[in-house]
Amino acid sequence: MISDVRINGDRLWHSLMDMAQIGALSNGGCGRLTLTDDDQIARDLFTQWCEEAGCTVTFDRLGNMFARRPGRNPDLLPIALGSHLDTQPHGGKFDGVYGVLAGLEVVRSLNDHGIETDAAIEVVNWTNEEGARFAPAMLCSGVYSGLFDLEFALTRVDKDGLCLKEELDRIGYAGKEPCGAHDLGAFLEAHIEQGPVLERHDEIIGVVAGGQGQRWYDVVVLGCDAHSGSTPMSGRRDALIAAARIIAAVQTIALDHGPEGVGTVGELHVCPNSRNTIPGEVRFSIDFRHPDDNALSAMDEAIHAVADAERDAEVQLDMIWHNPPVHFDSRCVEAIETATRALGYPHRRMISGAGHDACQVARKVPTAMVFVPCKDGLSHNEAEWAEPDHLAAGCNVLFQAALTLSTHSALVPERPA
Amino acid sequence: MISDVRINGDRLWHSLMDMAQIGALSNGGCGRLTLTDDDQIARDLFTQWCEEAGCTVTFDRLGNMFARRPGRNPDLLPIALGSHLDTQPHGGKFDGVYGVLAGLEVVRSLNDHGIETDAAIEVVNWTNEEGARFAPAMLCSGVYSGLFDLEFALTRVDKDGLCLKEELDRIGYAGKEPCGAHDLGAFLEAHIEQGPVLERHDEIIGVVAGGQGQRWYDVVVLGCDAHSGSTPMSGRRDALIAAARIIAAVQTIALDHGPEGVGTVGELHVCPNSRNTIPGEVRFSIDFRHPDDNALSAMDEAIHAVADAERDAEVQLDMIWHNPPVHFDSRCVEAIETATRALGYPHRRMISGAGHDACQVARKVPTAMVFVPCKDGLSHNEAEWAEPDHLAAGCNVLFQAALTLSTHSALVPERPA
Q1: What is the mean pLDDT of residues B340-355?
Q2: A227-286, pLDDT tens digit by residue?
Q3: Which residue numbers delimit the Peptidase M20 dimerisation domain (chains A, B) (predicted)?
Q4: B136 cis-preceded (ω within 30 degrees of 0)
Q5: A101, A218, A288, B284 from A123: Cα distances, Å
Q6: Residue A230 and residue B194: Cβ atoms within 8 Å?
Q7: Helix and strand numbers, DSSP H then E, in chain B
Q8: What is the largest CA-CA distance in chain A?
Q9: H helices of A219-361, where?
Q10: How far apart are CA A222 and CA A241, in angstroms?
Q11: Phi and psi dihedrals of B192, rounded to 5?
Q12: What is the CA radius of gyration of chain A?
């Protein structure tokens, strides 16, 4: 018992390709870091498209954008569909962007067929999901959900010492609405899987029931700068040798908690970084993830033991972020699974390996996600790729689920009087 | 049978402290990279001091500077005393600078006592000894000695893409004299040991009979950028994990060839260097040194074996520089040892652990070095320190040796007719 309306896959694909021109890189990917000039251009284009689709676009103090297509009943909270438009430095065309433009395609398809919904439909673009420029990731959806303070977010600083507030003001996307004040009845996020599971099983839809937990660390290893030629190996305090041991341990600890556990050192800086000076200081990040919070705690204990055991250098290990595993709203997951079954797509229930804005929003708003496969499970990579048919299928699931939630008022809480 | 003249240790010390103001760092060291604005200021001050001491200052096409105090006999080749004025990014006050200003102090002391020498005395400042900005180290003394081509040196590029020739022109120290055309009868270099040996043995003079061999490598490790959360450990090609294994191997290989062998990874760059992306590319340097060229070859074979054995990533290992061990001129070493004995300083014969301009110049000109202790053997570090008395002692040895070489014409080849 679903609508026979189908979204326009070609229009969705062309919108994705048009958006990918902004911050395009030489190997087919996108480098559109949050709050850069390119992010501003992308936000302006998104605003233009939404307004052309009859939506009213607003944004809050952190630049989280909400494009509203009104519903019949103003007393119902809106059903939100979205993700993020920012990318990694060497990111792809689909991570985040797909969820935003799939939401827009749902609105465009509703317009094509003159469908009125009870609850309003809103398309959302969350600020700084990637965390590549301003750590941590999912920062502004986190503030929306009350996981971070506004002030904490506004004062995050990038590698060049620029803070989030300055950059938000600079590109003109600092709104007046308090972050979190914009009530939503439900939030649905469509996303590429960013992993190999669906592809391996020839399935095209992942019904996502939750997200794994994450712990992020900043590590500083302090040794002693010295001459690389005349300092005997015995007398050295080489910060990079000590760092290399810890990096190897990150892999070992993740493997010890496999197959779900993962551990990554993605960012590393050596000081003074001169080829004939023994490094006196190395700074790097650690990213641990696991669907089970107890396993994540064990990984935390293990890396602290490794840091404490280091003798050749001083190791400072600070956990800068802990995001426990999240379980999505059963009614929203149900709406997505029902739509997927009705549309006849091969699918599976799964837990998200990556963090997503949905994992933050779920702490405040009934939430679920739809995954589609990506080639070789590759993401955060210029070669990231998803098949147009799969993207269209995910968007059709989003359309049917949004229609269900927005037209069965029972599912949607009323706006507080 | 030595002169009873002694150099002025206070004047030497104050000159060192004055020079250390140029590019001074907050922790007491110097960051005066070659061919920067600070290097220009240091060269100008050195020129002013030499001219005030009655010297004529010239420089060749690579900015190698020669300050000449004439001798009685213009047919004799000059006796050169010097080192370098450039430093590491976080360098000290003495590495290199001491050898140049000790040479200047010898000239000033000769003037104080109205001593005429048969051969001229020249104070030399070699360009880009450190190699911290333009690899390899000892570049311009290397061209002087015919180890490198002029064109190779002029086209070296720094991290910002600036080439040595541009920067040399920019600071106004590109001369007309071909590099290597400036004939020298002998070259003596005074330097801090940059190692712990003299200090450990309570000796204040090292009579340096040669230098150890060096091999420098550039390494590129290629993996695959991927998402740090949703890429299972099994499917990863993490370039930093592979790099960490090679860095650990560099230490192991050096220890296997101990106690003389040393191995260092001083410079490392991660790409894309984002905390939630598995690194797809890591570039780093390797610096291997050993007094025995056969051992150095064995270390080379060992690191190639490690690179070839890597399975998780592609490893490109390129040796960019091989400097075999060098043996100094017996007459010059003798002159330094005789002076040291006559002055009654506790001393030892030794091999230099660090590379020095003298190791390059020795391939073309009769050469030797004199070492003085530095605190904890520490160098390439802001905390680098040498005792004023030790610096004065080394300078007195330099003075006596220079006097011997410049007044016993028999030791000095005549200028070709």
Answers
A1: 94
A2: 898 888 988 999 999 999 999 999 999 999 998 999 999 999 999 999 989 999 999 999
A3: 213-310
A4: yes
A5: 8, 34, 31, 45
A6: yes
A7: 12, 16
A8: 79
A9: 239-256, 293-309, 330-343, 357-361
A10: 11
A11: -70, 150
A12: 22
- Which of A132, A226, A285 is opposite residue B379, by nearest beta carbon? A226
CA B6 centroid distance within chain = 27
For residues B135 and B36, the answer to whether their CB atoms sit within 8 Å is no
Pairing of strands B186-192, B367-372: parallel
CA-wise closest residue to B142 among B320, B391, B382 = B320
Burial (CB count <10 Å: 0-12, 13-18, 19+), residue B239: buried
The predicted pLDDT at position B417 comes to 46
A213-323, which class in CATH? alpha beta
* Cβ contacts of A273 on chain B, cutoff 8 Å: 89, 266-269
3 state SS of B101: helix
Tell me the H-state helices in A77-209. 97-112, 139-144, 150-154, 164-170, 197-200
For residue A225, the chain B residues in CB contact (below 8 A) are 90, 380-382
Amino acid at B105: E
CA distances from B252 to A229, A239, A280, B255, B288 (A): 16, 16, 19, 5, 12
**pTM for this entry:** 0.76
CATH architecture, domain defined by B9-212+326-411? 3-Layer(aba) Sandwich (3.40)
Task: For this complex, say whether ipTM is above 0.85.
Answer: no
Give me the residue label for tokens 């956990």.
Answer: A319
Number of alpha carbons in the 13 Å side-chain half-sphere of residue B333: 17
Mutate to test the interface with B, among A138, A221, A224, A277 (most CBs of B within 10 A): A277
pLDDT of residue A2: 83
Which tokens in the block code for residue B381?
């570090």
Report how many helices (DSSP H) and strands (DSSP E) chain A contains, helices first.
12, 16
Of B230, B247, B352, the CB nearest to A379: B230
> What residue ranges do the domains of chain A occupy?
9-212+326-411, 213-323
